[in-house]
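Feature request, filed as a ticket because there's no other form

It would be nice if the structure record came with a short human-readable summary line next to the tokens. Right now we just get the raw output. Example of a typical job, pasted below so the devs can see what we mean:
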Amino acid sequence: METRKFGTKDLGEATALYSQGLPITGMSWVGSECHFIFNKNKLCLEIIKKYWEEKLQVDAYKYFISLKNLKSRMFSRKS
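Raw output as currently delivered:
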């Protein structure tokens, strides 16, 4: 069975998913845009829904550290 994937170029959305414990399964680049790839499952979809409805509750420090980690991954890309 193939695992369904979810990709986003929205850094805030990716950070929300990552800060809630969803691992990044990959990254892809379309031109200069970075897309973070996650496994698409029930938890992933619930977090996305809450994020866009502005109802997602996150620990501020955990979110900040997750954001730093994602930005580090983006900027460490070798051109």
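Something like this underneath would help us a lot:
The CA atoms of residues 38 and 55 lie 21 Å apart.
The mean pLDDT is 93.
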